[in-house]
Design brief:
signal; 5 helices
Length: 262
């Protein structure tokens, strides 16, 4: 049988394709690598920088439609519904009905408490973290507030102390910064929708870098005076990467705007 040059080349190419395909199918699947995250010299994730939320959590942690004051947004509550005790739910409803004049943040210029300070008015905050330091410092544009996350293993002070921002003790669990906070004032609001807490509030915040410019911010909220069980929120925080971006001075006036601009 006589084969032409073209015929032979065709057979050879087909054989090579079969070998190549069989070789490729034998290779193990390669799992995608997790994005690299910045680290300090001690190996801990580097949270230094200015961060900001961009969602609608400050208006209402749960699903809400747009109104004349706020855009609509989806819930950041993992359980979708906050598990209020019956009497506490009535208080929340009363708060909501009078929120224009009762919200401690928007109507009275008070400190928001935790975790609301993280997403209050979607204003930025700056984290300062040193390698092998005994605390992490956070400065907030809102009300020029600040928090200390003590990472030196010291416990919460004895007794109950009424603070807007509570007492915070932190530790690292792998690459996640876990901040445990207690000792809060009674009646702090979590959002402008009237969701509130008592002096029995216990907050556990988890900061985990997703990549260089995003933090997954998870919070567990436990308050046996107000809720039937602990519940959780999950918010993405974004790094401000603009050149020379910085926190600005903050001024708030407790003024009855609704009286003049209903």
């Amino acid at each position: 049988m006589i084969f032409s040059r073209t015929h032979c080349l065709t057979l050879l190419a087909g054989a090579l394709l079969v070998v190549s395909a069989s070789g490729q199918s034998a290779k193990p699947a390669v799992s995608p690598r997790a994005p690299a995250i910045p680290r300090l010299s001690d190996g801990k994730p580097n949270l230094n920088g200015i961060w900001q939320s961009i969602g609608g959590a400050d208006a209402d942690l749960q699903d809400h439609a747009a109104d004349r004051y706020n855009p609509g947004a989806q819930s950041v509550v993992d359980e979708h519904t906050i598990p209020y005790l019956p009497d506490a739910l009535k208080t929340r409803d009363d708060n909501r009905a009078q929120r224009r004049t009762l919200d401690p943040v928007t109507a009275k210029c008070n400190l928001p408490g935790v975790p609301r300070l993280t997403y209050a008015r979607n204003l930025p905050f700056q984290i300062f973290q040193l390698p092998k330091g005994d605390k992490i410092t956070v400065l907030y544009e809102y009300a020029e507030a600040h928090r200390f996350f003590y990472t030196n293993g010291t416990p919460h002070p004895p007794g109950h102390i009424n603070w807007y921002l509570g007492d915070s003790r932190a530790k690292w669990e792998g690459d996640t910064l876990v901040v445990d906070s207690i000792d809060f004032l009674d009646g702090l609001w979590l959002d402008h929708a009237g969701d509130y807490t008592s002096d029995q509030l216990h907050v556990v915040e988890r900061y985990k870098l997703i990549d260089a410019d995003h933090i997954d911010y998870k919070v567990e909220i436990d308050d046996p005076k107000v809720y039937s069980k602990p519940w959780h929120i999950d918010i993405t925080l974004y790094r401000r990467t603009e050149k020379d971006f910085q926190l600005l001075d903050y001024v708030c006036y407790a003024f009855p705007y609704e009286k003049y601009y209903p």
